[in-house]
Amino acid sequence: MKSLVSALVACMICTIALLAQNAKPIDSAAVVRGVELTTMADGLWRHISYGLFNGEAVPSNGLIIEEPNGVTMIDTPWNDAQTDSLLIWCEKTLHKPLRRVIATHAHADRLGGIRTLLARKIDVLSTPLMAEQAVKRGFPAPSKPILPNDSTIQCGNFTLRVVFAGSGHTVENIVVWIAEQRLLVGGCLIKSSDTQGLGFIGDAVLNEWAQTVKTVQERFPMVRTVLPGHGEPGDKTLLSHTIELLGKRYRKP
Ligand SMILES: [Zn+2]
Asked: What residues flank ion ligand 1 with Cβ within 5 A?
């Protein structure tokens, strides 16, 4: 009898473990020391890292883009150790070095791994405004603060358009449009559909944020997928959802 009970308990534990796995699909790229990877398209992965904010583990999104001779990353994980583990994953799994990183604004969930990148002499691209804000907030300056407000970078099969559409979550936040995928990397300018708050607004420009999202809507009406800074990707309704949240939070005087 005792062994039957033990077998049942073991079976339940297995089932729970499987259910937990099913609830959160993580594909072959697997979990790399505190960072999860999920495939978004051939040669395109979303990286998800967890950082502590107000005592809670907050997941944060970024992208890895494979090119013929290297890898480009949009936004670093929260810290150097997580960033280092992604560099190792690129080298060991893709057999290619990380060549450059584009951060969508200067906070730890986008730029927390910058010291690792600079130590490894990996280019960190930003606008001059972002470089200025990074230093003000205690980060080292990105190595290449050369991006104009609207620039196009070819990354293998992917054409990236890096756009500063105005202030919002921060004064300097940018978005990245990946034309072939009709994918908008919104960073923290855009909120996920299940988010009802604006997140950290200590550096936000609340009276300009909604207009900036409207500018993004107008610039990329053909968007198919939106990747917010935190939470699950969605369609273009994430943009209108963000504008609605801002309407609730902030009304123009
Ligand atoms: Zn932020």
From this structure: 107, 188
